[in-house]
């Protein structure tokens, strides 16, 4: 029998091995982010277990950042790193246990379907092939990776650029929320489809500014929520710095330069098994007009895509109680506009469950494509 081993020396790899004496009892520890205490993301490869009944026990599950996230959760696994499916998983309030019988001698496991840095670069290159897209390097992350903005505009439009609405879409402030960049991939594919009448009409009315990946350092490091300096980027918008949070600093500057009429900030949620949005109702500049725009946008999205709902969500923040360090709140307050945080599940959409894959990268792409429909209604 081949000896068992676990490796993490690859993009977003993260786990600590406590015991691996036998396939039926592999004990693991989910490690915290590299410069912070958030622990929930894992991504690793198990070698040498072909044909064996494997039991993976995550011993510190109850001590992680979001222990409620393990209730109803199932680990994702893949043998080819392209097709990911859910495996038998249970949580007893202390330990998360997953069971599977690998067919081959290398099987990958992750908290959610990964979106690698190479995949991110491929996404940028694919978008750049469109004549509608201008790629702009805003600057560098803490570790020197590119912060990239995609400016998407139909320069043949009859409407002058200064008269078009400026729509911003940013994603993956929290690097472990990989569904956010899958969402962006689906969004871009549809927006850049010359045969899609919705995208063509939108580009007559709007210019788009898309940051597909706000936190490339954190993603490569295998972090859940923070960048290489330990900053939770979605708590940095009130006062970012080039030392601690250059990613936010650079994007905020670009927003000031280009202008902004509407923003979507795309995320994933550990606990809630659904797709929903959070608004800016707690900000001082929140008005009945913005409230109406929010309700219209949500209603239009529900009509366009049954995967989106507005029953289960975070609830409403009291007037004047918004945390202005969050992107959606800072943007809504600064620009007096509609700004929404999009949340997708790490688990599944309980309204339309998939017993094989749960919520997945492919389903995130479909949701990203569907958001063009409510954007079209908003743009009128």
- Overall average pLDDT: 97
Please, what is the CATH homologous superfamily of the largest domain?
Zn peptidases
Q: What is the radius of gyration?
A: 21 Å
Distance between the termini: 66 Å
- Number of DSSP helical runs: 9
Strand order of the largest sheet: 11-12-14-13-15-17-16
Q: Indicate the low-confidence ranges by residue numbers.
A: none
Provide the domain count.
2
Q: Secondary-structure element sequence?
A: EEEEEEEEEEHEEEHHEHHEEHHEHH
Query: What structural class should be given to the helix and strand makeup?
Result: alpha+beta
Q: Shape from CA axes?
A: globular
Structural summary, described in words:
The chain has 380 residues and is an alpha+beta fold. It has two domains: 5-110, Immunoglobulin-like, CATH 2.60.40; 117-378, Zn peptidases (Aminopeptidase), CATH 3.40.630. It is 25% helix and 23% strand. It contains nine helices and 17 strands. The chain has helices spanning 117-128, 179-191, 197-205, 216-221, 246-258, 288-304, 327-335, 361-370, 372-378; strands spanning 5-7, 16-19, 26-29, 43-47, 54-58, 76-78, 85-86, 88-91, 96-100, 106-110, 133-140, 146-152, 165-171, 206-211, 262-269, 276-278, 338-345. The strands form three sheets. The chain has a seven-stranded mixed sheet with strand order 11-12-14-13-15-17-16, with helices on both faces. It has a five-stranded antiparallel sheet with strand order 1-4-10-6-7, with no helix packed on it. A hairpin with a 6-residue loop joins strand 2 (16-19) and strand 3 (26-29). Helix 6 packs antiparallel against helix 9. The radius of gyration is 21 Å and the shape is globular. The model has no long low-confidence stretch (mean pLDDT 97).
